[in-house]
Amino acid sequence: MRGYVKRVKQKAEKLSKEQVLSLLEDVVDENESLYSVFESLSTGLLITDDNFRLLRSNTIAESWLPFSERLEDILGSEKPIWEYIEDEDIAAFLRRCIEKNVTNSSEEFSTVTSGGTVRFLTVTIAPLINEGELNGKMILVRDITEKKNQDILLHRMENLANLTNLAAGMAHEIKNPLGAISIHIQLIQKALAKARENEDKLPAKKFVEDHIDVVNEEIDHLNKLVMDFLLAVRPVKAQLELKEPDKLIDGLVSFFKPEFNREGIEVVFRPSESGIRILLDEKLFRDVIMNISQNSLAALKSKYKSDGENGFESGAKFCISNIVRENKFIITIADNGCGMSEESLSKIFEPYYTTKANGTGLGMTMVYKIIKEFSGEIIVDSKEGEGTAFTITFPIPQKDTKLLASDGGSHDNSYN
Fold it and tell me: In DSSP terms, which residues pair with 399 in a beta bridge?
């Protein structure tokens, strides 16, 4: 049709009125067909000029992106499209594209609907080409919520496979308190049987109370084991949203740094300064960082001697470093504390394994579960007497590498 109209245009002066009207009818029909296709797309589409001023849009784009005004009311506006987008992250992404003159870029975002449901979107910038020349921009919006939810479900199914190990650990842990309860109840029963044979003369009060105290202690122990077990097997209900780990960790460091400093421990935080956002649950992410940092605090206190007034000897150091490398966001949490033995290192994520007198052995198990829920990986490097480093790696949502930090990850991840 396009070629036909061009040819007719060259001969327009020779056309009769009837031929012109017929041509206009063909053009209208063609336009209606193209409009129907445009509106029927499962992808949201915004057409802009080179300065991101809106020229055309379809209905689905307006339903997926949060706009401050109706799109039909801003057609022809001199303001760029991001001025009307209420989501700050999406607006900033579009603004960066024009500032950096990026014509091909894609990034994932999370938005919250009016009903409180989290929706995941991919926003793509592509050039609009007309006869081989750049004639504007296309903004494509795709809903990837279902795919994200399927990925989350897959990770949860993988976590369920660990229930066998947890159940075996639980069975082992409850044997000792049950055995103790059984022994002390038998001793009480024997004492009562002997009393009946001795004219119902009961044993000394203290004798019975001692056994009952032990039974009660073991019952409390069992109750705690059961509660910890339920916590460990309960699926992690992560409300994943795109968050900047640099900002989250900066806030957490400000929270626990005074506690470390009171103990004479130097705290260092090196952000990636990339502005990268990754899929996280803010509360669960906080649990991960706080759990590891408290373990580091214990390791540092174990190695460095306190002088009673000025905290610990100089040299105790705790460091968190963030870098971006090969489309991965990497967090390294390191200390120069007492470190771990090879046995402890190999069992650190196993349920019920702990070297602490009052530890449950489930803290690092939960850390591992949460990291997996975020589609991340965690590894540990430790040397006894030298220190420990946790390296947590998260995938960065789809994004043009041109918009990533250009330092390539030059931060020093060690505590030295």
Answer: 107
pLDDT digits (tens, 9 = 90+) for 155-198: 666 655 555 666 666 666 777 788 888 888 888 778 777 776 77
Task: Say if residue 337 is exposed, middle or buried (CB neighbours under 10 Å; 0-12, 13-18, 19+).
Answer: buried
Give the model confidence (pLDDT) of 42-89 as tens digits: 888 998 998 889 988 888 888 888 888 988 888 888 999 999 998 888
Long-range contacts of 161-166 (CB under 8 A, 24+ apart): 162/351, 162/369, 163/233, 165/350, 165/351, 166/229, 166/232, 166/233, 166/351, 166/365
* DSSP conformation class of 100: T
Instruction: Give the residue from 398, 324, 416 showing the smallest Cα distance to 104.
Output: 398
d(CA 94, CA 139): 9
Give this prediction's pTM: 0.53
> What's the order of all strands across the beta sheet hosting 133-143?
54-57, 44-48, 133-143, 118-130, 105-112
Short-list 384, 367, 397, CA closest to 278 = 397
- 123 Cβ partners below 8 Å, 6+ apart? 90, 93, 94, 106, 107, 108, 109, 139, 140, 141
The answer to whether 391 touches 329, Cβ cutoff 8 Å, is no
CA distance 287 to 279: 15
